[in-house]
Amino acid sequence: MFSAIRAGGFIMLPIILCGIAATFIIIERCFYFYVTKKRDVKLMYDLNSYLDSENYDSAAISCAEADTPCSQVVKKALDCRRWDEKDMKDAVEAEMSVVVPRFEHLLTPLGTISNIATLLGLLGTVTGNIKAFGVLGAGGTMGDPAILAGAIAEALVTTVAGLIVSIPSVIFYNYFISRVNRRIAEMENNVTNVVIKLTGRVK
Fold it and tell me: 147 versus 87: which is more confidently predicted?
């Protein structure tokens, strides 16, 4: 493994750094979506009983304990429950636009890494081929076989390394984008149900 990394040359360093960063982001986002989903399920279960009994203090405490984007928007709705219905909805919509970036956190860097890793692999391929042709040009028909093999290895290893980082990054980026869209839709549905109860249309 280490011999392959050495064969890839200096281009391998940024590719490895991209791989480490992508791995961190993927693990962090998987954990985040799992935890927030679990907390939101519990939050909505608790809120149903609290809102039915108009126990708004306990509902607010549950929101604070959940500490999710959904709970933050629900807390805003609870704080504005005495407002005019239109004003409350406007406040809730504004709060939603504030919390959505919490779902999208680190996804832009992950998408950037998926593109950069491919380009770095391509760059390594180009530099490796340049070295290979330089060896051929300097040494007659074949040049030094050892140097030529090293240049070709650099071209191939960096290409493979770039793809190894890029492919999972693209897959998880698209997966997380779909998760974000689903979570936003779930949040809107949950908050709408809370607002309906707070406005007294459903008891």
Answer: 87
103-132 confidence digits (pLDDT tens): 999 999 999 999 999 999 888 887 777 776
**CB contact at 8 A, 8 and 158:** yes
By C-alpha distance, which of 60, 31, 73 is closest to 187?
73
d(CA 154, CA 147): 11
Q: pLDDT grade, residue 144 (50/70/90)?
A: low
pLDDT averaged over every residue in the chain: 87
**CA angle (101 as vertex; 98, 102 as ends), nearest 5:** 100
b (16+ CB within 10 A) / e for 9-23: bebbebbeebbebbe
Residue 76: closest CA among 200, 181, 166, 198: 198
Cα torsion angle, 163, 169, 172, 173, sign: negative
Q: Where are the domains of the chain?
A: 2-198
Report whether 201 contacts 193 (CB < 8 A). no
Tell me the HSE value of 95 on the side-chain side, using a 13 A CA sphere.
Answer: 22
